[in-house]
Fold this protein.
Amino acid sequence: MPSSAASTQPTTWRSDELVTAENPVGLQTYECWFCPLKCLGFSALLYHLEQGFCVKRYRIRTLAFEGPQRGLYGTKPRHTNAFFCFNCGNHFPEVSWLFQHAEKVPACSHLLNADECLGRLRAFYINYYDCPGMDFTQS
Protein backbone atom coordinates (compact mmCIF):
# COMPACT_ATOMS: atom_id res chain seq x y z
CA MET A 1 0.00 0.00 0.00
CA PRO A 2 1.27 3.51 -0.72
CA SER A 3 2.09 5.50 2.37
CA SER A 4 0.76 8.83 1.17
CA ALA A 5 -0.75 10.96 3.90
CA ALA A 6 -4.31 12.21 3.72
CA SER A 7 -4.16 15.57 2.02
CA THR A 8 -7.27 17.24 3.33
CA GLN A 9 -9.05 17.48 6.63
CA PRO A 10 -12.66 16.23 6.88
CA THR A 11 -15.30 18.79 5.99
CA THR A 12 -18.76 19.64 7.34
CA TRP A 13 -18.03 18.25 10.77
CA ARG A 14 -18.58 21.19 13.07
CA SER A 15 -21.31 20.16 15.50
CA ASP A 16 -23.69 22.83 14.19
CA GLU A 17 -23.29 21.50 10.64
CA LEU A 18 -23.83 17.80 11.34
CA VAL A 19 -27.57 18.03 10.89
CA THR A 20 -27.79 20.89 8.39
CA ALA A 21 -25.10 19.87 5.87
CA GLU A 22 -26.23 19.30 2.30
CA ASN A 23 -26.47 15.67 1.23
CA PRO A 24 -25.61 15.45 -2.49
CA VAL A 25 -24.49 11.79 -2.33
CA GLY A 26 -27.48 10.48 -0.38
CA LEU A 27 -25.73 9.58 2.88
CA GLN A 28 -27.79 7.98 5.60
CA THR A 29 -28.48 9.92 8.79
CA TYR A 30 -27.14 8.20 11.92
CA GLU A 31 -28.19 9.00 15.46
CA CYS A 32 -25.66 8.90 18.28
CA TRP A 33 -26.25 6.01 20.67
CA PHE A 34 -25.66 8.24 23.69
CA CYS A 35 -27.10 11.66 22.89
CA PRO A 36 -29.78 13.08 20.56
CA LEU A 37 -27.26 14.24 17.90
CA LYS A 38 -28.06 13.15 14.33
CA CYS A 39 -25.12 12.89 11.94
CA LEU A 40 -25.04 12.90 8.18
CA GLY A 41 -23.05 9.78 7.28
CA PHE A 42 -21.38 7.22 9.52
CA SER A 43 -18.12 9.19 9.27
CA ALA A 44 -19.71 12.16 11.06
CA LEU A 45 -20.97 9.92 13.86
CA LEU A 46 -17.49 8.42 14.26
CA TYR A 47 -15.97 11.91 14.27
CA HIS A 48 -18.38 13.01 17.00
CA LEU A 49 -17.35 10.00 19.11
CA GLU A 50 -13.62 10.34 18.32
CA GLN A 51 -13.65 13.86 19.72
CA GLY A 52 -14.56 12.47 23.13
CA PHE A 53 -18.25 13.27 22.97
CA CYS A 54 -20.24 10.46 24.59
CA VAL A 55 -17.36 7.90 24.76
CA LYS A 56 -13.73 7.98 25.89
CA ARG A 57 -11.66 9.89 23.36
CA TYR A 58 -9.62 6.98 21.94
CA ARG A 59 -12.21 4.21 22.26
CA ILE A 60 -13.44 4.42 18.64
CA ARG A 61 -9.84 4.17 17.39
CA THR A 62 -8.99 1.15 19.55
CA LEU A 63 -12.26 -0.58 18.68
CA ALA A 64 -11.33 -0.42 14.99
CA PHE A 65 -8.36 -2.65 15.75
CA GLU A 66 -10.60 -5.15 17.51
CA GLY A 67 -12.97 -5.30 14.54
CA PRO A 68 -13.24 -7.79 11.70
CA GLN A 69 -10.74 -7.67 8.84
CA ARG A 70 -8.65 -5.02 10.62
CA GLY A 71 -5.73 -5.75 8.30
CA LEU A 72 -7.82 -4.48 5.38
CA TYR A 73 -8.16 -0.93 6.76
CA GLY A 74 -5.63 -0.42 9.56
CA THR A 75 -1.92 -0.75 10.24
CA LYS A 76 -1.05 -0.28 13.93
CA PRO A 77 -3.01 1.85 16.44
CA ARG A 78 0.03 3.93 17.40
CA HIS A 79 0.86 5.00 13.83
CA THR A 80 0.09 8.60 12.92
CA ASN A 81 -1.84 7.53 9.81
CA ALA A 82 -3.06 4.20 11.15
CA PHE A 83 -5.95 3.75 8.69
CA PHE A 84 -5.84 3.22 4.95
CA CYS A 85 -8.18 2.69 2.04
CA PHE A 86 -7.88 -0.86 0.77
CA ASN A 87 -8.91 0.28 -2.70
CA CYS A 88 -6.63 3.28 -3.39
CA GLY A 89 -4.05 3.08 -0.60
CA ASN A 90 -4.53 6.58 0.85
CA HIS A 91 -3.74 6.78 4.57
CA PHE A 92 -5.73 8.60 7.25
CA PRO A 93 -5.11 9.53 10.90
CA GLU A 94 -8.56 8.52 12.17
CA VAL A 95 -11.15 5.94 11.16
CA SER A 96 -13.74 8.69 10.64
CA TRP A 97 -11.52 10.17 7.90
CA LEU A 98 -11.36 6.77 6.21
CA PHE A 99 -15.15 6.44 6.31
CA GLN A 100 -15.57 9.98 4.97
CA HIS A 101 -13.18 9.14 2.13
CA ALA A 102 -15.26 6.08 1.21
CA GLU A 103 -18.49 8.09 1.48
CA LYS A 104 -17.21 10.80 -0.89
CA VAL A 105 -14.98 8.98 -3.40
CA PRO A 106 -17.11 6.92 -5.81
CA ALA A 107 -14.22 4.60 -6.74
CA CYS A 108 -13.83 3.58 -3.08
CA SER A 109 -17.47 3.64 -1.93
CA HIS A 110 -17.97 -0.08 -2.58
CA LEU A 111 -15.94 -0.69 0.61
CA LEU A 112 -19.04 0.47 2.54
CA ASN A 113 -21.12 -2.46 1.23
CA ALA A 114 -22.14 -4.91 3.96
CA ASP A 115 -19.83 -7.65 2.67
CA GLU A 116 -16.76 -5.37 2.37
CA CYS A 117 -14.26 -4.33 5.07
CA LEU A 118 -15.78 -0.94 6.02
CA GLY A 119 -19.32 -2.30 5.88
CA ARG A 120 -18.27 -5.02 8.30
CA LEU A 121 -16.52 -2.51 10.54
CA ARG A 122 -19.67 -0.34 10.61
CA ALA A 123 -21.71 -3.43 11.59
CA PHE A 124 -19.13 -4.22 14.28
CA TYR A 125 -19.52 -0.75 15.83
CA ILE A 126 -23.31 -1.02 15.68
CA ASN A 127 -23.30 -4.48 17.28
CA TYR A 128 -20.73 -3.41 19.88
CA TYR A 129 -22.96 -0.59 21.07
CA ASP A 130 -25.87 -3.04 21.09
CA CYS A 131 -28.39 -0.94 19.24
CA PRO A 132 -29.50 -3.16 16.33
CA GLY A 133 -32.33 -1.57 14.41
CA MET A 134 -32.13 1.63 16.44
CA ASP A 135 -28.67 2.84 15.49
CA PHE A 136 -29.73 5.14 12.69
CA THR A 137 -32.71 6.92 11.25
CA GLN A 138 -33.62 7.29 7.60
CA SER A 139 -33.25 10.85 6.33
Summary: Residues 29-137 form one domain. Residues 1-20, 132-139 have pLDDT under 50 and may be disordered. The radius of gyration is 14 Å.
